[in-house]
Amino acid sequence: MKLTPEKCCKIRMILIGVGFTLFFLAVVGRGFWLQVIDSEETVARARRQYKRIIPLTPRRGAIYDRNGAELARSISVDSIFAEPLRIRDIDSTVRALSRPLHMSGAALRKRLTSKRSFVWLERKVQPDQSARIRKLGVEGIAFTKEHQRFYPNGELAAQLLGFTGLDPKGLEGLERYYDSQMLGQEGFLVTAKDGRRKGLGASNKVVDGGSHGNSLNLTIDRNLQYLAEKELAVGLKEAQGRTGSVIVLDPKSGEILAMANQPTYNPNAYRRYAAASRRNRAVCDEFEPGSTLKIFLMAAALNEKVVQPNQWIDCEKGSYRVGGMTIHDHHPYDRLSVADVLKMSSNIGSAKIGKLLERQRYYDYLKQFGFGEKTGIDFPGETSGQLRRPELWFEGDLAAVSFGQGMTVTALQMARAVGAIANGGLLMKADLVRQIVDDRGTLVESRSPQTIRRVVSEKTAAQVRSMMEMVTNEGGTGTLAAVPGYRVAGKTGTAQKVDPVTGGYSADKRVASFVGFAPADNPRLVVMVVIDEPQTHVYGGLVAAPVFSRLTGQALRYLGVPPTEADMEAPLPPVTLETGVAISTGNIQPARIAEGDAPVMPHCLGLSCRQVLQTMEKLGLNIRIKGTGKVVEQFPAPGQDIRYGDEVWVKLEPPA
Q1: 609: how many CB neighbours lie within 10 A of its CB?
Q2: Do domains 53-218 and 222-268+279-558 have the same CATH topology?
Q3: Does the pLDDT of residue 209 top 70, yes or no?
């Protein structure tokens, strides 16, 4: 059938009408969908088109000490931004803002001429700086509140707390370890803009503050932390040491009450300090323990019943060859009891006890005390120390490990292990955080003391405590650690450092340490003191023990621990070389120097032990002291030259 022009025109009109009808129905249907069925999403999409959302730093939870004292918190400060599209006079704005913003004119101009609708000028500015800029009232410049981390105690516990970045993500210390717990939900800065993405004015800005993160309640006591840092700084200065660390812990709970390091830094301005100052050396640095390890040798040997406290050990008069090497004592002892081996810190006696114990058993006990593995403390960067397996030990290695060489430990490992001796043989888990609470004060997590394992029997622990107490009594190597009014147990340590160039032991670099607890019969505190590379003296009894004494005495008084002994002056310095030089109470004349720079033996007859040591310190000589009381005999004679290699000694006897 042939279509006429009229019919073709009619069909085209019908098709066009159907098309318009379908299009109209589609538009109506889409409008119905957007405005009725999916209205919420449509509104949200429209808002996103005329609003700009800028994320702001979330507010972190606070950090408190065990008594609720604030150690770290977040404060509200101003951040300054610009809306370049709203700025009419760029030149005058640059002139007005470059000085208070501490920015060059070129750098500021580059930001203000940006095609973006929003640029940060400076975030988290000081209040006085913000106030000056606010007074200028510059068009297109606005302010919003952000949260900045603040440490109200400055340097106190700096390495422990760590610090945060601008974001503010935790970068070091507890701030880093608990970052996910402490970091709250971020807030948002919402700005209105038109169809050309130009800002519609500062009055349209709204800030959503987000939510707070959880807060930490630490085991640390702020006052004990202050005492630890103060006494460590004094001791490090007196010893002219490179670095130092102190740990104070409760042996019954394992809680760390103080953890101090020197040199330190201020986390409020951490960028001004070298990275070495920010390291928590008590957890992250390892060193050879030296004679402090003899505590655990004795504990293992007594627990295995291979020796008894009163058993005699032949100390070979100060020189003993084993495994191709010769071991020396600081004093040529003949025979010592096992208890005196610890008291006098005999290397030869320790090596012989280690031989009786043998490699595998000794290694197993060291592992049981926690050496050679991380403690699991809630702190980043902890090192495990080095303890080789016993099948790799030769005879000389066993002897060396018996007196604390050939392995490494951390200050935390040593303090926790001594805590096991103080706690009747039970090793406790070390913790830094007691509780975690949310921003409403609701308890999120609570931690209670946790026993890891029993290492030695209660009887053995009591025997070792008694032997350690002898170390701080007259004749021991740690009498300068004595605390008037309290019974003190402890052990000195002096270890050679490895020379990184030669790979052997350094001739002049040492690590001096002292670890102990008080009161000895009912320990409340374990205190570990480490001084790295002391210059004035090298022995732990000279350098670290006085720090222990001052700190422990103040700490016990602060904790309200009543004295266990009648108040008395500290005992005389010890009679071995691993000793301290007490302040002389007499008037000692400086030693005369003979011609040719040879020192001259001073007149020591009638002097006390303290006065003799004070005199010999000025001469820079080692001296052998026999007995106690006053000097009745000396060698060389007064006024004689002291030639290189001469033995210098004095003999003391109690007054008649």
Answers
A1: 22
A2: no
A3: no
- Per the prediction, the chain carries an average pLDDT of 84
DSSP 235-283: HHHHHT-SEEEEEEE-TTT-BEEEEEEES---GGGGGGS-GGGGS-HHH
- pLDDT more than 90, % of the chain: 51
**Cα separation, 291 vs 476, whole angstroms:** 13
80, 201, 205 from 193: Cα distances, Å: 19, 8, 10
Question: 116 and 58 in contact (C-beta within 8 Å)?
Answer: no
Sign, Cα dihedral of 111, 113, 114, 119: positive
Which amino acid is present at 146? E
The alpha carbon of 459 is separated from its chain's Cα centroid by a whole number of angstroms, namely 33
| Each residue's pLDDT tens digit, 545-597 | 999 999 999 999 999 999 987 654 444 333 333 322 222 222 333 333 333 44
CATH number of 595-653: 3.30.10.20
Number of other residues whose CB lies within 10 A of the CB of residue 131: 12
Position 45 pLDDT exceeds 80: no
Which listed residue (291, 337, 345, 402) is catalytic? 291
Classified by CATH at the fold level, domain 53-218 comes out as Penicillin-binding protein 2a (Domain 2) (3.90.1310)
Between 507 and 154, residue with greater pLDDT: 154
pLDDT (tens digit per residue) in 317-370: 989 999 888 998 888 899 999 999 999 999 999 999 999 999 999 999 999 999
Mode of pairing for the β-strands spanning 319-322 and 325-328: antiparallel
* pLDDT tens profile 369-400: 999 999 999 999 999 999 999 999 999 999 99
Residues 6+ apart with CB under 8 A from 103: 97, 121, 122
Gyration radius from the chain CA atoms:
36
DSSP per residue over 1-45, as a string?
-PPPHHHHHHHHHHHHHHHHHHHHHHHHHHHHIIIIITHHHHHHH
Which positions ≥6 away from 621 have C-beta within 8 Å? Answer: 599, 642, 648
Give me the phi and psi of 136, to 5 degrees please.
-70, -30
HEC assignment per residue over 277-303: HHCCHHHHCCECCHHHHHHHHHHHHHH
- 651 CB-side CA count, 13 A: 6
State in Å, rounded, how far the first CA of the chain is from the last one. 152
Specify the 3-state DSSP secondary structure of 373. coil
Polymer length of the chain: 656
Lookup: tokens for 258: 């103080």
Integer Cα distance of 462 and 466 in angstroms: 6
Q: Which of 176-180, 481-485, 637-641 has the lowest mean pLDDT?
A: 637-641
Query: How would you label 593-604 residue by residue, b for 16+ Cβ within 10 Å and e otherwise?
Result: eeeeeebbbbbb
Write down the domain spans for the chain: 53-218, 222-268+279-558, 595-653
- CATH superfamily for 222-268+279-558 is DD-peptidase/beta-lactamase superfamily (3.40.710.10)
CB 249 within 8 A of CB 430: yes
Angle between helices 294-303 and 458-471 (to 10 degrees): 140
605, 632 contact by CB (below 8 A): yes
Q: Which residue has the tokens 């030669």?
A: 502
Q: Is 291 known to be catalytic? A: yes
Has residue 143 got a pLDDT over 90?
A: no
Tell me if residue 627 falls in helix, strand or coil: coil
Residue type, 142: A
